[in-house]
């Protein structure tokens, strides 16, 4: 580019625009091209070139996933997660940003009714997600590398496991919307 003229600079800028579009999610054309080039190289038995494209695709996937995790962390969501461990046991997680605030096993046989269980979970959710100065300070500001790593674990768990979850709006907590929380838990 440096030794070239106006045409080379224009081509260079177009390539950068395509890379930026790929990374910000507005155009997957470059990704599709890379997959096609990898497949074409493999069909020609040019396995070195195919491996190069595969490695580049892995890098792009890694970057795209990191971007999702950073966005996930920045949103600072209240997440309620349940996972059925067996017929009688459910695990409840309450997560804020990248922090697991509560991790609790619940024995379903101990509770007299599903309604009582929902009410207990609602009270726990309201008490746990209430904003206090310490939690607010810990969940604000710039995201550190450690937070990204921790959020990656949570994000991967939500995407890949058999858990159920929902994002609890802060307004529901602030307004003590018991009915909304209970309905979300029932539908979970």
TrEMBL record:
List the PROSITE patterns hit by this protein, alphabetically.
Answer: UVR
Highest taxon in the source lineage:
Bacteria
For this protein, the record's Pfam families field holds: UVR
Q: What is this protein called?
A: UVR domain-containing protein
PANTHER family documented for this protein: UVRABC SYSTEM PROTEIN C (PTHR30562:SF1), UVRC/OXIDOREDUCTASE (PTHR30562)
Q: Where is the UVR domain positioned along the sequence?
A: 28-63
Record organism: Paenibacillus vini
InterPro entries given in the database record: UVR_dom, UVR_dom_sf, UvrABC_protein_C
